[in-house]
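So, could you explain the following?
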Amino acid sequence: MSSATGVSLKEQERAARKAEKARQKRVAADEKAERKRSEKAGFANVNNPRRSKLLTFLCAIFAVYCLFPFVYLAVNATKTQADFTSTFGLGFGRSFALWDNIVTVFTYQDGIFARWLINTLFYVIVGAGGATLLAIMGGYALAKFRFPGRNAVFVVIIGAISVPGIALAVPQFLLFAKLGLTNTPWAMIIPSLISPFGLYLMWIFSEQAVPQELLEAARVDGASEFRTFWQISLPLLAPGIVTTALFTIVATWNNYFLPLIMLKDADWYPLTIGLNQWKDQASTAGGQAIQNLVITGSLITIIPLVIAFLCLQKYWQSGLAAGAVKE
């Protein structure tokens, strides 16, 4: 009896293994057929992911296009001035002079590069920080409060976004000249405080990210509007805040035309104007070519932006799918 039971169990195990192998073969066949259909369609199937060769190739080209300037800066920042003019642009020079170039950048012309870097950080912290704060408060108020003229404000914001900033540079210069604010830090800070796109972005994001029921519950519990905004709404707006901050930081950091017409004193230059002045130095009478310092300074200039993106991207990505799934 026991031997018969043992034989029966072994047969059941063999049958189970055979059925499992047959199931795996069916699954493999289905996956192969699905991959063929995906290849013909040119896109990946959600249930059976597979990269499209065409899209992968296009993304690779785009990645090379985006990374090429950074690679060029990183390679040429290691060259001396002689190597920069006598060697291939994407090849290293005869000597590795990166550290020497960095030291020279911060000591050339009595260390004015450090002053330009401090000026840029000051303009970003005050100007971009203030623009982000004003966009947060203005966008939240426009999204959560109803008042006469709200639609008119929306039209004005859309119109302001449509107007390129360079078109406003000359009127801004004439206005600041009348006020006696040209060639001062205020000529950089005050225009940077206004970010129509940031205001519009926070308006739309606040409309979706902060439930009206949550605000009503806070008001019923006796919380003031100020406390409701800072303790309840602000944490929910973190992804939108980070996105707005990144836009305003990059816009202020890379601003070129506004300081070009507003500032004449080199001590107030941001990095964009200062490095351009170094670049044009060789074309002046008796000027010395210092392209290796310009390249090294440009590499140093982008490092804070890279750090900012790396530090803030987790807050940005956390809100990309907010509201995409209905519970």
User: Anything to note?
Assistant: Residues 320-327 have pLDDT under 50 and may be disordered.
